[in-house]
Design a protein that fits this description.
The chain is of the alpha/beta class and 260 residues long. The chain is 49% helix and 13% strand. It is built from 8 helices and 7 strands; from the N terminus they run βαβαβαβαβαβαααβ. The chain has helices at residues 15-26, 39-53, 67-81, 104-132, 153-173, 191-204, 208-216, 228-239, and strands at residues 6-9, 30-34, 57-60, 86-89, 135-140, 178-185, 250-253. The chain has a 7-stranded parallel sheet, with helices on both faces. α1 (15-26) crosses α8 (228-239), α4 (104-132) runs parallel beside α5 and α6 crosses α7 (208-216). It binds nicotinamide-adenine-dinucleotide (NAD). Nicotinamide-adenine-dinucleotide (NAD) binds at residues 11-17, 34-37, 63-65, 90-93, 113-114, 140, 142, 185, 187-188, 190-193.
């Protein structure tokens, strides 16, 4: 389905991003991975993708909180793989704290990684997409692009921001064969969710089980975590030719959370 295409997925050394990169490679796309983590584990993931799926996989350690590194990553991927046809702006972090105690440096970091990095990567990728008259921009937003939760002010602000950015990009690129959409997962069981449990326990004075059942899954009518493979399947559909008329959409995959 994606043979001959190149996909760059930010924040793809873990969780949702890794599942999306693997789903694209499985369909024949060459991929550029990005993110932090153990060097040997990342190299194993990269080479496993090449051997399992018979594609080229490269890795960029660019820091998505730095606009210049983000743009250079896109340009390097184009230089090494020939193009960036599918851009998934997925890197993201979370921090949980009451707003009056929210550390300003954490606010800046979340806005930079969860929102501004999408601007820098998108502006670097669009000229090549316009030239080919084909492109897919998929932003991993969140249910928190549509509704809020307490103690996540920076994350909610950045995710609402990326939803608006997605719509503007969709309008600007609509006649160039390019689509831009945002995927809004509810709670997906990934390291990002696991890591916020201790902070939420502290912020709300709850046990681990209470946080999982009464805070996280409380919001999700299905009472189940979304899986990374379900999110990857949606990202794969949006990358395909059958999704060419879906653009500027903010698409929920949240077990009914935002229906309430
Ligand atoms: P994760 O922690 O498993 O993965 C995050 C990825 O981003 C990792 O590869 C990490 O190395 C990378 N990353 C973090 N900071 C970076 C930086 N400065 N530069 C480059 N890479 C960086 O988390 P995840 O749950 O897979 O989250 C992926 C995206 O999905 C995020 O945007 C997150 O907000 C969003 N999301 C997650 C959930 C959920 O429940 N897990 C729900 C809705 C949205």
């Amino acid at each position: 389905m994606l043979k001959g295409k190149v996909a760059l997925v930010t924040g793809s050394t873990s969780g949702i991003g890794l599942a999306i990169a693997r789903a694209y490679a499985k369909e024949g796309a060459n991929v550029c991975l990005n993110g932090f983590g153990d060097k040997a584990a990342i190299e194993k993931e990269r080479s496993d993708i090449e051997t399992e799926f018979g594609v080229t996989a490269i890795y960029s350690g660019a820091d998505m909180s730095k606009g210049d590194q983000t743009q250079a990553m896109v340009q390097d991927a184009i230089a090494q793989l020939g193009s960036v046809d599918i851009l998934v702006n997925n890197a993201g972090i979370q921090f949980v704290s009451p707003v009056e105690e929210f550390p300003p440096e954490k606010w800046e970091q979340i806005v930079a990684i969860n929102m501004s990095s999408a601007f820098y990567a998108t502006r670097a990728a669009i000229p090549g997409m316009k030239a080919k008259k084909w492109g897919r921009i998929i932003n991993t937003a969140s249910a928190h692009a549509l509704i809020a939760s307490p103690f996540k002010s920076a994350y909610v602000a950045a995710k609402h921001g990326i939803a608006g950015f997605t719509k503007s990009v969709a309008l600007e690129t609509a006649t160039f064969g390019i689509t831009a959409n945002a995927i809004c997962p509810g709670y997906v069981w990934t390291p990002l969710v696991e890591r916020q449990i201790p902070d939420t326990m502290a912020a709300r004075g709850l046990s681990r089980e209470q946080v999982i059942n009464d805070v996280l899954l409380h919001a999700q009518p299905t009472k189940q975590f979304v899986t990374v493979d379900e999110v990857a399947a949606l990202a794969l559909y949006l990358a395909g030719d059958m999704a060419r008329s879906i653009t500027g959409s903010i698409i929920s995959i949240d077990g009914g959370w935002t229906a309430a």
